Amino acid sequence: MKYAWLVIGVLAAQFLATAIAFPQVDGDLHWQRWLGRAIVEHGAIPRALGTETFSAPGSPWTPQEWLFSLAASRATGAIGWALFAGGIALCALVALALASWHAERRGASPRAIVVCLVPAGLGLFASFGVRVQVAAWPLLALFLLLLDLEGPLAFAAIAVAAVWSNVHASAMLAPILASAAAFGTFVDDRGPSPAFRRRAIIAVGSAIAICANPFGVGLPAYALSLFNSPLKGYIVEWDVTNLGHTSFVLGALPLLALACIVAVPQARRSVRDLVVLVAFSYLLLSAARNIALFGLVALPIVAPALTRAFAFFAPSPPPRNAREVRAERIAGIVMPAIGVMLALVVGIGLLRSGERTKDTLAARAIGSLDSLAGERRLFCADFAWCGLAVGKPNVRVFLDGRADPYPLTVWTDFDRIARLRPSWREALARYDVDTIVVSKDAPLDQALALGVPRAWRSTYADKNFRVWVRVRDQPSTSAAAPRVLRARNSRARAAYSAA
After folding, report:
1. Of the candidates 22, 30, 75, 24, which has an alpha carbon nearest to the alpha carbon of residue 388?
2. How confident is the model at residue 323, as a pLDDT?
3. How far apart are CA 432 and CA 102, in angstroms?
4. What's the start-to-end Cα distance of the chain, in Å?
5. Which residues contact residue 129 at a Cβ distance below 8 angstroms, ignoring those fewer than 6 apart?
6. Which of 146, 258, 132 is nearest to 199 (CA)?
7. For residue 80, how many other CB atoms are within 10 A of its CB?
8. Which of these, 71, 309, 397, 496, could form a disulfide with 262 (CB 3.0-4.6 Å)?
9. Is-contact 181 276, C-beta < 8 A?
10. What is the pLDDT of residue 6?
């Protein structure tokens, strides 16, 4: 792993800077903190949506993020946030380090590990952030490592599955991985060998272990329901993976290509590896959210195969004299040290960039709602923005980043309003929406400006976002409130009025 530390050092800078200093890329963290506070306050995990939403109160909810939310709710102040966010970033680095060490244990050379580590690391960016799924990545890598062991320690994978189920619903992958490995081992060993029996026991044990959480069998049932849920069509992370995803093109796709070049031809050597690769290749291509998982699974399989396939990647011969032994030891110290230096240099460069000032979640627009009188029934043109409003005393949301518990009818109406589909005005009226946050100059923004005169008035605007309120409910209280957009031409006015 001596070269791997250089890559991990660079990635450490990116992950730590992104987690601690950069603004969040989704609104989940706010409602997760609210969930953590609610659990502490009421002494129980909620099982249904409450009055924080006006579109679907009482809808069943499985808040799989409960443990993460408890930790997030305690991460207050600069030091608390740095420790919490830094810990999540370290989860990504630990996952990569475990996958690299796993590859080394399976005979991969340092060169082969680095060649596979780079795309695996780049693949993590598809889902990286201070997010609950990142906390589950090292558990996946550790489960794979334990599953590969030959002794009794392998059964610790069952305990890892139990812990995993309390972190994220992706724990459902544990029995799937173990079953795939057991089936492949049965084929490799041409019958029920001790290795097959061990992995079969782990598969059964993991299936039981993932129910060792506050939701019991409800958690795997929830995870299974997501595979065929019609709601996935509205959520970007569930999009079918394609060449428009940078982390796929730079990360998972090169690993997948290497797997086809070196691992598939060696299928006779290990059907077990091939079965696992095929299973995760299917998951990779079915949803963009699986890009990161594929890299962690593929690295320990592809790197050893690459080592065996090409002489260039063959392991270096062992040290032959005391001088070479000393050089090897020095390299073992110097490489991690260089990795730390790279992390510092890259991290300082990232912190000095202008990216830290970007507001991608309409945070200031959502914050302006505090100055509005009365209870607000809020619709966000991007449902993730409304995550920042969950728990506000004067705001109830139409739809937010919790996503899964909202009924399909709510999602359909959200799509109708956000995309100005037929009857979008009727949908707004039916839910009695009185406050809207929208991207400035987006179609919905223009439609509100060009609709019935003085039906809506803007109370806040910046260069990216605007807040609209119904005039009958909330007149503008600020002398500095921006003017309603003027019609650019009569054709535009006619088009929006017809909509």
Report:
1. 30
2. 63
3. 56
4. 60
5. 18, 19, 24, 25, 26
6. 146
7. 12
8. 309
9. yes
10. 76
The pLDDT assigned to 379 comes to 97
One-letter amino acid for residue 24 of the chain: Q
Are the C-beta atoms of 206 and 161 separated by less than 8 Å?
yes
List of E strands, 119-218: none
Give pTM, 2 decimals. Answer: 0.84
Phi, psi of 157 (to 5 degrees): -60, -30
Burial class (CB in 10 A: 0-12, 13-18, 19+), 218: middle
Closest CA to 369 of 275, 477, 220: 477
460's tokens: 């806040």
What is the distance, to the nearest Å, from the Cα of residue 79 to the centroid of all Cα atoms in its chain? Answer: 24
Instruction: For residues 251 and 254, give the distance between their C-alpha atoms in angstroms, rounded to a whole number.
Output: 6
pLDDT score for 78? 81
For residue 476, the model assigns a pLDDT of 38
pLDDT < 50: residue spans in the chain: 354-357, 473-499
* Exposure b/e, 144-181, CB count within 10 A at least 16 = b: bbbbbeeeeebebbbebbbbbbbbbbbbbbbbbbbbbb
pLDDT for position 239: 83
Report how far residue 183's alpha carbon sits from residue 112's, in angstroms, rounded to the nearest whole number. 27
Q: Are strands 395-397 and 376-380 parallel, antiparallel or unpaired?
A: parallel
